[in-house]
Amino acid sequence: MAEVNRRARVAIIEDDPVLRDELARAVGLAPDLDVVGTADCLARGRELLTQDIDVLLIDLALPDGSGIDLIRETHARRGKIKTIVISVFGDARSVVQSIEAGADGYLLKGAEPAEAANAIRTVLEGGAPISPSVAGHILARMRGRENAPAETTGPPLSPKEVAVLTDLAKGFRYKEVARLQGISPNTVGDHVKSIYRKLAVSSRSEAVFEAVQAGLIRLKE
Amino acid sequence: MASPRRAFEPLSPEGFAPAPSRTWGLAAMIIVLQILFSGALLWANLVAEAAPGRLIETIAFAEAGAWNPATLPDSAFKPARLPVALCCEASPLVLRTRLTADDAGLTSPSVLVPSAHDNVWLYVDGDLVAGQGRATSTVTSRRPQLLRIPARYVHPGARIDLVVSRTIGFGHLRPFRVGEYDALYPSWLALRVLRSDLPFANAIIGAFVAAFCLCAAPLFGARGLLLSLAGLAASWALQHVGLMVTDAPWGAVANAGVYLAAFLATLVFLVWFFIEWTSVFAPPRSPTATSPRTMILDAWNGQARRRLALASLAVIAVGIVLIALRLQDDQAVGLQLINRVIGWLGLAVIAFSLLRIGAFYSRGGLADPLEASAFIFVLLAAIADIVTVRFFKSYGIFLGSAVTFFPLALLVSLAVRARGVFEAATATADKLNTLVSLREQEILAGLQDLRRSEREALLLEERARIMRDMHDGIGGQLLGLVMRARANRLTGPALVHGLEESLDDLRLMVGSLEQSDGSLATALGAYRARIEPRCEAAGASLVWRIEDVGETPGFGPDRTLQVYRILQEACTNALKHGHPDRVAVTLRRGPDGEILLSLEDNGPGFDPAAASTGRGLANMRNRAARIGANLVIESGPGGTRIVLEMKDVAENPL
């Protein structure tokens, strides 16, 4: 029960000082969240990760590289840390890439403090935030994979997951999707989490496949 | 009329390419083999003839009016020296000699006749004792003949008369021997092998070549050539059948007919074959000219050669009828007569063939020494045989040996030609492949250029559109803010509001760019996050009704942005002027399949015609027109509905 009352420890990696300070301020306002450190580049961000943290807020375009690399590292080595992408536009392409790298959610830059805290809490509770354009983008990617060899695509989405994703892409909320699909809102959330997991898995199998193709990995005969 | 296939016809002028030295070597080898074989045959014949026994070279001869020489007195005989040519008389000829005391002392005195050109009967003291080889019941050969003199006729001075028939043709009698039967027998056996069994081998080879050519004719292109060669070989084989079978089951007349018809056919096929051979492998010189000179020397075209084939068969058929009639009339005289006519005909045919072959090779060069060696040797051998028989009163052996090698040389030559054609075809195919791959590279390069310029054009167009959209939206908004700020007419809240509007527009643009898969429903889904907070902030709830309208490939970023802006404007108007508590966005298909996108509110409504927001409405209409849609505004006391009607828009890109 002690865990429940513990304040979640948040780290922020963002190169724009104004946005970084504003975000740190907004998160700090939440009674259940604690900002334990901020960084303005990947290198300092890696140092932050040596601490005991629960949530990492990370920008993608950093001066010394892409945030996606750090998301992938974090997901692989310290899977318990939840990662949230900070995006100016919430553009689906970069968000989906982040999800495939193992991100758990995303946050629009310039969001209201309450909104930011809510997004962090959702992720901490195991939720998976998803916007209609992200859902649409995932659908488009799935369609593109239908003709690809099975070993590169990972597990396919179930028909119910596709239906849920299609409704979400049309802009419907969880509750509305639940009503349209005749399931409970929680089940909708479960489907979305499953979709996230499958995306991350297929991203990994794609990476493995490409590595084998490139001769980087040799499979045992 | 379909032209006949010509698989063997070389691609001129490559057909007359110089022969490789290997071919010359082969040709020389064939010639040497033929000469060796002929020489060996000649030598074997001379050895075989040198049997132990008395050689009779001087003799008395007389022309007999009747078949019985006993009626001829010694005074009718004139002296002669063997070999003697017996030419040109219809009656048989009698050659007379006498047994010596030595002859009479032999156990079993016999006469060995190595070669008479035709039948020989032996009379002793006026009695017929043997003839046509039937000295014993087992021997059936006419050439050579070993004739035994019965013991009761044997005494010194016994009168030996050899009656030789067929004096019309190139008849002759070689010197003969009188000796012990057993001593003469090996020579007779050797001569028999040389005279009868070798031609028999020739007949078998001829039959084999005929069968091969008949089988190959439909397979290869040069049908006329192979058929004429088949006819030549078959008639050659048949000629030997006629010569060899003395007691034919089909009767002597028919047998003579087979021989003579086959002889005639051989000559006709020879003409056909040489015209084919010297035409198929050479391009026709003057396809229309028919002067005797061109007929003899030049290549014949396909049509002329087909006529020649028919004419050849016709000549053979007519010849067979004439031969049959003549033989029926008088077998003995008819046979001699026909034989002589055909003999002269043969000389003419051989002369024609030599002339043609000479012309062919003098024009084309000795491109194929293999076939040249075969042909020329066969023709020369035929001439040599005629000369030998006619002037040396011997027998022909050269043609037989040449014919043995003829098919061999011809088959090798055909193989070389086929290989040449194959190599030429391979070279042509290689050349074509190279050309095709070069052309392919050109086309690919052109295609890449085309794609690049297409891509560049698309990029330019897209850039121009984004510039226009920026100018249309965020650019104008920011410019307005700057101008108002310069004039100090910008308050804090107004600045925040203006910047928020600009950011909103920027996000709309980004959002529209995300809409790459062209789904209007998904595009609207992304827009909900834009519109809902604004509605809620203005105290209105948003009702979201997006039905499944299927694929809308016509909605790229361009149309999506216009739809966003129209909705934005409509929503702004609704919230600003109507203060509704409910705003509904609906997407569905209309009764005619058109797509209907509407935004309605439950505000008080207004009169569109007199609306003070005329500029905003005009803006929306302009945008609708730009994407090919129709904007309908319905307003009344119950609220306002703005409908975007899109017919045939969703399917067709802008």
Kindly state the mean pLDDT of chain B as a whole number? 80
In the CATH hierarchy, what is the class of the largest domain in chain B? Mainly Alpha
Number of strands of chain B: 17
The dominant shape of chain B is rod-shaped
When the domains of chain B are counted, the total is 3
**Count of domains of chain A:** 2
Low-confidence stretches of chain A: none
Uncertain residue segments of chain B? 1-16, 133-140
How much strand content do the residues of chain A show?
5-15%
Which structural class best describes the helix and strand composition of chain B? alpha+beta
Radius of gyration of chain A: 18 Å
Shape descriptor of chain A: globular
Rg of chain B computed from alpha carbons, rounded to a whole number of angstroms: 55 Å
Proper CATH architecture of the largest domain in chain B: Up-down Bundle
Task: Please count the helical segments of chain A.
Answer: 11
Quote the beta fraction of chain B: 5-15%
The quaternary organization reads as heterodimer
CATH homolog superfamily of the largest domain in chain A: Response regulator
| Biggest pleated sheet of chain B | 6 strands, antiparallel
- Spatially, the strands of the biggest sheet of chain B line up as 3-2-5-10-7-8
* Count of discrete alpha- or pi-helical segments spanning 4 or more residues of chain B: 14
Question: Would you kindly provide a written description of the structure presented here, covering whatever features stand out?
Answer:
- The complex is a heterodimer of chains A (221) and B (654).
- Chain A is an alpha/beta fold and 221 residues long.
- Chain A has two domains: 2-124, Rossmann fold; 132-214, Arc Repressor Mutant, subunit A, CATH 1.10.10.
- Chain A is built from eleven helices and seven strands.
- Chain A has helices at 2-5, 17-29, 42-48, 67-77, 92-101, 113-124, 132-145, 150-153, 159-169, 174-181, 185-214, and strands at 8-13, 33-39, 55-59, 61-62, 65-66, 82-87, 105-108.
- In chain A, the strands form two sheets. Chain A has a five-stranded parallel beta sheet with strand order 2-1-3-6-7, sandwiched between helices.
- In chain A, β4 and β5 form a beta hairpin.
- The radius of gyration of chain A is 18 Å and the shape is globular.
- The relative contact order of chain A is 0.10.
- The mean pLDDT of chain A is 79.
- Chain B has 654 residues and is an alpha+beta fold.
- Chain B folds into three domains: 14-47 and 197-429, Rhopdopsin 7-helix transmembrane proteins; 51-189, Sandwich (Jelly Rolls); 517-646, 2-Layer Sandwich (Heat Shock Protein 90).
- Chain B is built from 14 helices and 17 strands.
- In chain B, the strands form four sheets. A six-stranded antiparallel beta sheet of chain B has the order 3-2-5-10-7-8, with no helix packed on it.
- In chain B, a hairpin with a 5-residue loop joins β14 (582-589) and β15 (595-601).
- In chain B, α1 packs parallel to α9, α5 (252-280) packs antiparallel against α7 (302-329) and α7 packs antiparallel against α8.
- The longest helix of chain B is centred in the last third of the chain and has 89 residues, at 398-486.
- Chain B is rod-shaped.
- Residues 1-16 and 133-140 of chain B have low confidence and may be disordered.
- The A-B interface holds A 89, 91-93, 110, 131-133, 135-137, 139-140, 143, 168-172, 176 and B 503, 507, 510-511, 514, 516-517, 519, 521-522, 524-529, 544, 546.
